[in-house]
């Protein structure tokens, strides 16, 4: 199986009787982002914009990093067995976890660079998110 050209070396179980994944099916596997992904993307963007206030740069950086995150999803699922019916949710959940770890890395880095506590960084992240996504300026 491949996700955007990245090999997913996992075994699918419980495929419907008599069916196998065709080459076309393998090429169409994608990671679907859900509501959690959307919120994590907003947090990631707000964290990014604490360094660079250009939303276009943040969006470009997110899209550039997405391939790396998909690689990490495939790496984490390598050698596992996944029920075919839960493949989409497994990919999404794993992607969300990888993205959450990247958000956490941003926060930890901000804490070190600014020599401050987590609450200070979280406050700035929420403030940036409010400015970006609700149009509120503080």
Task: From the structure above, extract its key features.
single chain; 138 residues; mainly alpha; two-stranded parallel sheet; 63% helix
Verbal overview:
With 138 residues, the protein is mainly alpha-helical. It has helices at residues 23-27, 35-49, 55-77, 87-114, 118-133, and strands at 2-3, 6-7, 11-13, 81-83. The chain has a two-stranded antiparallel ribbon. Strand 1 and strand 2 (6-7) form a beta hairpin. Helix 3 (55-77) packs across helix 4 (87-114). The chain is elongated and about 55 Å long. The chain starts with a strand and ends in a 5-residue tail after the last helix. The model is unreliable at 22-27 (pLDDT under 50).
User: What is the strand tally?
Assistant: 4
- The first-to-last residue Cα distance is 48 Å
Assess the beta-strand content as a share of residues: 5-15%
Largest sheet: 2 strands, antiparallel
Strand order of the largest sheet: 1-2
Low-confidence stretches: 22-27
What is the number of helical segments per DSSP (H or I, 4+ residues)?
Answer: 5
Compute the average pLDDT.
Answer: 89
Question: From the helix content, strand content and strand pairing, which structural class follows?
Answer: mainly alpha
Radius of gyration: 18 Å
Global outline: elongated
What is the helix content? 55-70%
Q: SSE string, helix = H, strand = E?
A: EEEHHHEHH
């Amino acid at each position: 199986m491949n996700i955007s050209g990245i090999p997913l070396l996992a075994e699918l179980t419980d495929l419907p009787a008599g069916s196998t994944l065709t080459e076309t099916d393998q090429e169409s596997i994608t990671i679907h982002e859900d509501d959690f992904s959307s919120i994590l993307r907003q947090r990631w963007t707000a964290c990014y914009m604490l360094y660079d206030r250009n939303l276009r740069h943040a969006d470009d950086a997110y899209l550039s990093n997405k391939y790396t995150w998909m690689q990490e999803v495939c790496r984490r699922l390598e050698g596992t067995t996944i029920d075919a019916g839960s493949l989409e949710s497994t990919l999404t959940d794993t992607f969300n976890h990888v993205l959450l770890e990247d958000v956490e890395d941003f926060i930890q880095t901000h804490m070190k660079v600014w020599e401050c506590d987590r609450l200070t960084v979280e406050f700035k992240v929420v403030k940036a998110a409010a400015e970006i996504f609700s149009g509120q300026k503080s």
